[in-house]
TrEMBL record:
GO terms for molecular function: purine-nucleoside phosphorylase activity. The active site is at 204 (proton donor). NCBIfam families: deoD, PRK05819.1. Coiled coil: none annotated. The record marks 217 as: Important for catalytic activity. This is Purine nucleoside phosphorylase DeoD-type. InterPro entries: DeoD-type, Nucleoside_phosphorylase_CS, Nucleoside_phosphorylase_d, Nucleoside_phosphorylase_sf.
Length: 233
């Protein structure tokens, strides 16, 4: 059952899908962490793969950048391919005063400056939140693996280059990190009655200008993957 953006046939995608923004990172994950891998999608080069991790079937597919892009791909996975859980895995900018480079953050909720939720015509403001089951499993997996995990609110921003880059008001409200996709993913999961979680590795701290090198990002990415892969059902 193909869609305009996904060539997969029914049954080719696992119930759990990991979604990095970069499709080339999806290929790297499949080749590095999974066995018996097959590629199910190359449409628009948004690569998707299914394989096995410790005997459990798991898929990994790129989401692209921003809420509009992950909104399309996660919607199709939930609504047309019966995917149960999507775990976004990516980098984020650290905002919280106790959040530093290499930290792993799980988004319990996702604040946003996006208008994505307006489509639901709700009589108020919707609060996009993660699946408690996935969040609990991530916390347990991180503890078992000895990987420190910080849990709290994310900011899903529609702008990467902003005319108003100040984040002090979000920091005051306890937001830990800024990224660009979680709120849209959480909205789609809620609408479909499915599960989602965003795991982010802190690659830079906007307030100080600190950032990781490519090699350092790879090392912190490995810790994030160890936790994310344990969430596969």
């Amino acid at each position: 059952m193909a869609t305009p953006h996904n060539a997969a046939k029914k049954g080719e995608i696992a119930q759990t899908v990991l979604m990095p923004g970069d499709p080339l990172r999806a290929r790297f994950i499949a080749e590095t962490y999974l066995t018996d891998v097959t590629c199910y999608n190359t449409v628009r080069n948004m690569l998707g793969f299914t394989g096995l991790y410790r005997g459990k079937r798991v898929s990994v597919q790129g989401s692209g950048m921003g809420i509009p892009s992950i909104g399309i791909y996660s919607y199709e996975l939930f609504e047309f391919y019966d995917v149960r859980s999507i775990i976004r895995i990516g980098t984020a900018g650290g905002l919280g005063k106790n959040v530093g480079l290499r930290d792993l953050v799980a988004g319990m909720g996702a604040c946003t400056n996006s208008n994505f939720a307006a489509q639901y015509r709700l009589p108020g403001t919707f609060a996009p939140i993660a699946s408690w089951r996935l969040l609990k499993k991530a916390d347990e997996a991180a503890k078992a693996l000895g990987v420190p995990l910080k849990v709290g609110n994310l900011l899903s921003s529609d702008t990467f280059y902003s005319d108003d880059p100040e984040h002090e008001k979000w920091i005051q409200m306890g937001v830990l990190a800024v990224e660009m996709e979680a709120a849209g993913l959480y909205c789609n999961a809620a609408h479909a009655g499915r599960e989602a979680l965003c795991l982010c590795s802190i690659s830079d701290v906007p307030a100080t200008g600190e950032s990781l090198s490519a090699q350092e990002r790879q090392e912190s990415f490995h810790d994030m993957m160890k936790v994310a892969l344990e969430l596969a059902d």
